[in-house]
Amino acid sequence: MVRPIMLGIVGDSAAGKTTLSGGIVRLLGAERTAVICTDDYHRFDRLQRRALNITPLDVASNYMDIMAQHVRLLAAGEPILKPVYRHNDGTFGPPEYVVARQFMVVEGLLGLTTRSMRDSYAVTIYLDPPEDLRREWKLERDCLKRGYERDQVIAELHRREPDSAAFIRPQRASADIVVRFAPALDADDRARLSARLVLRPTISHRDITELIEKALADGCTSIGLELGRDDGQPVDLLHVSADITPEETAHVESLLWDSMDFDHHLERSAIGSFVEGNRRRHSDTLALVQLFIAYHLLDAAAAGREDRRPA
Description:
The protein is of the alpha/beta class. It folds into 2 domains: about 1-125, 3-Layer(aba) Sandwich (Rossmann fold), CATH 3.40.50.300; about 175-265 and about 275-305. The protein is built from 9 helices and 12 strands. The protein has helices at about 15-30, 45-50, 65-75, 115-120, 130-145, 150-170, 205-215, 245-260, 285-305, and strands spanning about 5-10, 35, 80-85, 90-100, 105-110, 125, 175-185, 195-200, 225-230, 235-240, 275, 280. An 8-stranded mixed sheet has the order 2-5-1-6-7-8-10-9, sandwiched between helices. Strands 3-4 form a two-stranded antiparallel ribbon. Strands 11-12 form a two-stranded antiparallel sheet. It is globular and about 60 Å long.
């Protein structure tokens, strides 16, 4: 029986959860990594939610008890029979049998809601893009992939805002790492993203901070590290500029790569990929963030999950 290293990724609709987790899975290898989406635990299909005037962000619209039970079972290495929600048409499909693997990624809207779920993860991430950027991403995704009209998406964003404030954003406080991607101020190129990572002391970031300090000493000026506060608490703040050069990216990637204690099957070319419209593109900043998170997971696997969090 495998007791997996559990990663929880939470954020509002279209915050980039699937993009981030997809690169991490490709990085670690699909044969040793599996993903479940907490959106599969919706209680109602799309038509039922409209009739009931309830959003999928509301905990009352989800089987939170089953979700929490399944996360705990996977963390213990047990298989689950998981429900399936089909985003393309808003209906439910046949249940899926999921076997725990070395790494388990749990991504979705409500994965940090309960204490039992939070305690199951080795690492937790909250995606916190600027609201105007998230809305732009949601408009593009829902219109291109989910069959909505633009006016429908805008109306749904307004309708969901109270539940975003009540149920989604409070989970930010429970994340070990808060990730904020933002576009460059002077460019329309969506591959040029900056990143700001809030590194909370709920898990150790010492190796990452030492590595970034080395990159800075080596002349990588597009990365920054400083002490700061978030929600009144002391944190490390890691910045990656949207103008990071390919040479700087390659150097930081090499430092991370050389520090990873693993069996060298990682797919270096698989990270940093995202979809814009109908084409696939690459972002150096996204690649680095995926590497930072993978480093934490590999570190947890090497050290043992119980050593990750302070008593």
